[in-house]
Amino acid sequence: MSWLEDITSSIKYIEGHLTDELTLEKIAAKINLSPFYFQKGFSILCGITVAEYIRNRRMTKAAIDLQNG
């Protein structure tokens, strides 16, 4: 797999498990990378850390839930 495919797969996994407890180790294991290399690659390709991405997505989901009642 290429880096782009790996990161895309990890984002799909994150999106499907936003309400679960997500750790860097769990996500990296899903795409067979070490947590260090996964974090590095994610940051380079996305411009933010994995933790920032998860936090931003959860905040967006919470805002949408609040708007919808």
Structure in words:
- The chain is mainly α.
- 75% of the residues lie in helices and 0% in strands.
- The longest helix is centred in the C-terminal third of the chain and has 19 residues, at 50-68.
- The protein is elongated and about 40 Å long.
- It starts with a helix and ends with a helix.
Characterize this entry briefly.
The protein is mostly helical.
- pLDDT average, as an integer? 94
Order of helices and strands: HHHH
Give the strand tally.
Answer: 0
- Provide the low-confidence segments as ranges: none
Main sheet makeup: none
Structural class: mainly alpha
Beta-strand percent range: under 5%
Helix content percent band:
over 70%
Which outline best applies? Answer: elongated
Number of helices: 4
User: How far apart are the termini?
Assistant: 41 Å
| Gyration radius from CA atoms, angstroms | 13 Å
Write the SSE topology.
Elements: H1 3-16, H2 24-30, H3 35-46, H4 50-68
Main features:
mainly alpha, 69 residues, 75% helix
